[in-house]
Amino acid sequence: MVLIxxxxxxxxxxxRRWGYITLFIVAxxxxxxxxxxxRDGSAFLRLSAVSERAALAGIEIAGxxxxxxxxxxxxxxxxxxxxxPGDDAGTYLDAxxxxxxxxxxxxxxRGLPEPVRxxxxxxxxxxxxxxxxPSAKGLPHRGCVDxxxxxxxTPSLELAPGQTLALESxxxxxxxxxxxxxxxxAPVGSLxxxxxxxxxxxADGIPDPWxxxxxxxxxxxxAGAR
Length: 226
What we know:
Shape: elongated
Strand content: 15-25%
Oligomer: single chain
Mean pLDDT: 81
Radius of gyration: 26 Å
Number of strands: 11
């Protein structure tokens, strides 16, 4: 654009040597600025592509258990799929069946940097709609541990696909999950003081276990066979 503007402005003019030098300097600055903008833009697009593929991986792992109306996002931005009438999980899974996957495979996710793996965890939790549900039943009397940050408690509890965990906290607590990431970044609900809640993770054919954490001390018991 800079060169076009200069050419239009210079039409019909008789140039001297200093004019050519000035034109060359301005053109060089303009080209350098455009190259820098292109470089920055390409870096942003590459980073966006990595984040979006990580989010789509979560939907693919959820598979038939996914909420088809779930709209994936990376932070504050929705993932734009442009495969059909809506950019939701159902649209993407239908496109995968027809055209193939553009999301990362579980094997690829395991090798990604931590913040990107956390994106897959959040997408998977939201696609599955995982949440702690209030339970009218009391805690089971077997397979129980103290979960939470208190001394002597287990900071993180492993939960295999297909298992159900029952939790109770005297003080109330926020429950989070992680699977591919190292840090618990996907919240799945809160426990009210003295309330028993259950959390079930579906079997999906992926061997990676889930890891459950609680922001306050809670009694955690396996409600199903391990």
